[in-house]
Amino acid sequence: MSWVKVAIIFLLLLVVGLFDFVISHKPVNASRDPLSSPNSDIASSVSTWTLYDRDPNQLWNRLYSALYQRVTSDSKECGYDELDPLLWWQTKYLLTNPANRRALAVLDEFLSTHGERVIDDPLKRAILQRDLWAIFDWTTQLQESTPEKLNLQDKLSRVIRRLALSPEEIAKLPNFYQRAIKSKSFAPAYEPNKRDRSFLPPDLFDSTGAYVMLSARGGSPIALGHVAFFSARSVFLIFMRLPAGREATLKYLKSLSEFSKPWLPDPDNPGRVVPNPDLPEFPAGTQLVLIRKMVLIDSNGNLQPTNIIEDIQIRVHRAIPSEIPGVLNLSRNEAHAALDVFEFKFSRPKLFANESGGLRAVVTGEKEFALFRSHGIDFEQREPLQACASCHFQPGVHSMLSRGRMESGGMQRVEVMPSWDLNYESNETKWWKGTQYNWGLLQGLWRSQSETTN
């Protein structure tokens, strides 16, 4: 890899980080009430963790519980089926006792008894590896190197390696989006007169269908903010669909690409830019879709994207207000109110039970523990459907945060275009991960281990 490309990536991360900081310090619909989330309520009713086996004392259940179970200040248990571990950048849990001691004890038991042999289901092995990998990457966010942290990293890396599937086994994992479609659990299309009804388009991944996959002109992952926050353990894809279908979408993207000045100098802030109001706008009814797909580490230590869907967010722009606000103003939220937002989250119990492709629809009013673009405070909460609309508060094309970040060493702003390679985002995500300290650390620990997975 050239040093120029590496330098560009780090400049991009700095810009994205600053933007995320500004957004995160103007939270909307955020709450620190640990009782108001449907997920936390569901988790609090689970007296035993029986995700991998009906026996709560089964080793995999105890390992998952030791790493993912959290208890709020008012003794509410949570974490049972959270999409990501409830660990923020300021969190000390798992790195201090008694939580660290408990986690190390179960990891030691797993290693000494070859716990990887207890379950041979490839899907369950994949999910446990995915969950442990998230914990490992989180430990690298803290600068201090304590014995508790180093010991946890070492043991996590060993178990992650033992759980690894072969490339052939990963390739055979089912297409879970297609399973969700075939289950008929969700409506197939958006209906304006049933705006609360969640839908999943059957032709989303059809390369000749109405939805066009996007990439960033100039390289790097298109949803770099998401890729960076989740440290490239997921591939993020963005699709666009204009109401008139594929040809209209491609024609619109061409007009966007040919527009010479999408950004103008900001008269109030020298050196900064603002959106050009004359930029071609997509029509009302346009849909934008963000897909998060799971990445695994195979038995050779290589990154392997999968067809396991972790999250889907769909924005339907019912109207396109003309004003382009510079900041979110809830007293004047025309673009915010003109959005219908839908989200589907990965559910481990549904995945293992082969229900609805392992997905559940987020309902209106539901709250979640805020991780992405949060303050880093344990158990901070928000409404995900409202948070999505609040981040993408500008109208139409200007709501696309994948546009506008700096590229080419800070000399050019990124614009979007139809993806020329369906594997491009996966390849760029793998390359990006390869530049990260946490991947180098995990690879070093992996390669230093003399044990085998047999």
Number of domains: 2
Would you report the number of β strands?
16
CA radius of gyration: 22 Å
Q: pLDDT average, as an integer?
A: 85
Strand order of the largest sheet: 11-10-9-8-5-4-16
* Biggest sheet descriptor: 7 strands, antiparallel
| Parts with pLDDT < 50 across at least 5 consecutive residues | 1-46
Principal-axes geometry comes out as globular
How many helix segments?
A: 15
Hey, roughly how much beta strand do the residues contain? 15-25%
Helix/sheet category: alpha+beta
Could you tell me how far the N terminus lies from the C terminus, measured between alpha carbons in angstroms? 34 Å
Helix content: 25-40%
Structure commentary:
The structure is a single chain. The protein has 454 residues and is of the alpha+beta class. It folds into two domains: 1-16 and 174-434, no CATH class; 32-163, no CATH class. Helices cover 35% and strands 16% of the residues. It is built from 15 helices and 16 strands. The protein has a seven-stranded antiparallel β-sheet with strand order 11-10-9-8-5-4-16, sandwiched between helices. Helix 3 (59-68) packs antiparallel against helix 4 (99-112), helix 4 runs parallel beside helix 6 (147-163) and helix 5 (122-139) packs antiparallel against helix 6. The chain is globular and about 65 Å long.
